[in-house]
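Hi X.,

You mentioned you wanted examples for the new student's onboarding notes, showing what a folding record looks like when two proteins sit in one file. Here is a clean example. The first protein comes first, with its sequence line followed by its structure tokens.
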Amino acid sequence: MNTAARESTDRSVPAAGRGQVLAWSLWDWGSAAYNAVILTFVFSVYLTDQVGDDLPGDVSANSWLGYSIGAAGLLIALMAPVLGQRADAAGRRKFATGVWTALTIVTMAGLFFVADDWHYLWLGLLLLGAGSIFFELASVSYNAVLTQVSTPATIGRVSGFGWAMGYLGGIVLLLAVYLGFVVGDGGLLGVPTENGFDIRLIALVAAAWFLVFAVPMFVVVPEVAARIDQPARLGVVASYKALFADLRSLYRASPHTVYFLGASALFRDGLAAIFTFGAVLAVTVYGIGAGDVLIFGVAANIVSALGALVAGRIDDRVGPKAVVVGSLIGMLATGVVLLFVSGPTMFWIFGLILTLFVGPAQSSSRTYLARLAPPGREGQLFGLYATTGRAVSFLAPTLVGVFTTLFASDRAGMIGILLVLAIGLVALWPVRPPARAA
């Protein structure tokens, strides 16, 4: 569909002001509380290294965490497309984002009750798994709102601004909790550390952070209008029948949209693996201290935010495909160098260069799909975006394990990540780029 036709048929708010863009992006800023603090750097580490460190039996707490997140991914894959489809039809994108965001915050706050005892490991795993489901479903509807706060000519920079806000929010919150609660014994605030109280208190702070910064979007950004041809409310089975019918129709009308969903699933799995295994490899391969990993995370967020901001403008000038392809090539080249260098200094240099390309790849992947999406179907397509990403989410972690085992080396595990990124790049290469706005 050309730009003029898209603009004439789009039901969304046509020209959002800067206030709406800022309010929308503050959700990204607040969501760093879940991504950076709960899932990546703080609470998941507490759950596996402290709560489950004396877990009886042969299965480690790390394995149970993987099973929990994997089960959550399966449920997301089953739920996301239908829920996105329903939110589009009913004109309730913002409402759906609010419901799932609220549930995510509830699970984050619930982590306060996970004491430093292996008997509480199951509560922590349940809350993390549920939080992953709720957060991903919130992201489906939130990403669809992108088309309401941007125009075809500005969608790249708006998406990049949102990603940058997410990175910057992670920087601020990570530094705050590190200085206030972690450094030394209980941080500068002198918080008691017995029974994991300091880390459990961080979960409450993260929940409050997400709540405060999510609110502006729901106040400032209008709800999208319901579809004029809104169908009758369908059950789950009927919804999937309709979904598969829409997929066949989408493939006939725009096969390259389906091709992009497949290609992005591959390279996004590689991006997820960078976040999942980056800190582990930093410690085990390059000798980064456990405390320094958090500082590296702050620096990496700064670099990624700058990359996303710059790439957003490039996206609007040359299109998202050039940004994604260039970013993947940059990550592959840097990753190959990391395979052969050693020591903390080399990791800091080339690790930060690698993260420079991560933000642009994430941001422009989102705008790629938003530009391809037929008007009024954005939530459904972003549901498929989440589903396809989860469908192959086992690939990179499995290859990391395979190469680590084959070569008896943690360093060799990086080959698995690079291989997935390379396959994603090859799959994306023939996909037609979306039409550019004048």
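Then the second protein repeats the pattern, sequence line and then tokens:
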Amino acid sequence: MAAETQRTPFVLPGDRIDHSLIPSNPKKALRLGPGLRHIPPNELVPTVAGQLVTDWRKNSIWVEYNGGRYIPSQGDLVIGTVQKTSGDYLYVSLGDYTSNALLPSLAFESASKKMRPNLAPGQLVYARVSLANRHMDPELECVSPATGKADGLGPLGNSTNTGGAGAGMGMGMVYGVSLGMARRLLMRRSAEEGGVVVLEELGAAGLAFETAVGRNGRIWVNSESTKTVLAVGRAVQETDEKNLSVEQQKKLVRKLAKEIS
């Protein structure tokens, strides 16, 4: 039986992808992630340079890469910043993406025409991309269409700023990470998968915190301790920027834990 997740050698834009590498679960539609383009009838072509990754369980395939601008894809979890409210929509910035995403005011748990969330400009939200089309602004949701529950989505604390080096004090801070790091944090099912153990090691060291990861290259860190928020953000960014191995991540965590103890 093939492994659930398989990583293959690097691909370049325009390369032909062997059909044996493409998942073919007859019970699920094939999901194309970032970095791939479908050429009818059945060809997949990389649009970026990176590592081709297939998830046989989810019947999905994508190209793992760090650079470039985030392009919304249906189903992505993202961290956005509310820019303004107009009518039935909130306009949300996803960072480097040029157009704002639309978040319907009714796309929240228990929201109704009489009871809508009151989110001010600068408010952070954790949302899912519900609609992505190259000819339209993406649309977001903060509720599961299947259960009607938030399932962890919605406003994130009281932090109002975002930035590549980390910004916004109070209920949390948002840090910028590479798109590849964001995908690794979101798609792993265990600490060892993807070679990212830094968050689990920080927790094992006694740091109490919570996180939310956005596919658009953002991670929100919240804790009652400002030192903990700073330490977690620093650890994740350093792991990303220096491409630290598992052992190097553990060493970094031990160092940070000593600094804040």
